[in-house]
Structure formats: C-alpha cells, structure tokens
Design a protein that fits this description.
single chain; mainly alpha; 114 residues; two-stranded antiparallel sheet; Non-ribosomal Peptide Synthetase Peptidyl Carrier Protein, Chain A
Length: 114
C-alpha cells in the first residue's frame, strides 16, 4: 500500500496534491496516486471488487459499505494521507468521486494551513 511516507516521485504532467513542507509525511501525490491509494484501501481493507471501482460508484449501493465501514474508511484515508477529514465533510461522501474530491481538498487545505 502507498502511504504519505512513500517517497516515489509523481508522474510527469500529473495534477499534484501536496502535504505542507515540514510535516512528517510531507510529499506530493498525483491525482492518479490518490485514486490508486483509495482503490487499494477499498480492495484490501473492505474487500471491494475492483471491477466496481468507478467514479460514480455509490458507497452503499455499489460497493456495499455500511455506515460502520464508512467510519473505518474515513479513518483509513486519514492515516494513509496524514490528514483529517472533518465529520461534517465525511458525512457528505456518497460516491467514489466524492472520496477523491474530499482527499484532494484536504491535502490542498493542509498545504495552505502551513
């Protein structure tokens, strides 16, 4: 699994999402890396079928995650990306696309807060 401490450089030309300089897990993630990490979490931690991982996949209906899985997913995302997803924002996540957008927003916000 790829985590915030992974030092692999992002691919050329990818959209980059960064951690603030000076933080423990400081590194940048391309949009593709964010998608890959989210997919790895869903597949390994929640046994989601990789064939069901499309951006419009609904967490409950398509990926068969219940509310407790949702809480565990947020915790896994926070650990993987060394960030915090506020409860109010986490409650708005309904699709895989929502997860991508939320993680990218949090990483960008973490960068601005430095």
């Amino acid at each position: 699994m790829i985590y915030a401490s992974d030092s692999r450089p992002p691919g050329a030309g990818d959209k980059i999402v960064s951690f603030p300089e000076g933080t423990v897990g400081a590194r940048s993630f391309s949009q593709d890396e964010v998608h890959q990490i989210v997919a790895e979490i869903l597949i390994s931690e929640f046994e989601v079928d990789p064939d069901n991982l499309s951006p419009d996949a609904k967490l409950g209906e398509d990926l068969e995650l219940d509310s407790l899985d949702g809480v565990d997913l947020v915790v896994a995302l926070e650990k993987a990306f060394s960030t915090r997803i506020p409860e109010g924002e986490a409650r708005q996540i309904r699709t895989l696309s929502d997860i991508y957008a939320q993680v990218e927003r949090r990483l960008a916000a973490d960068q601005v807060e430095v």
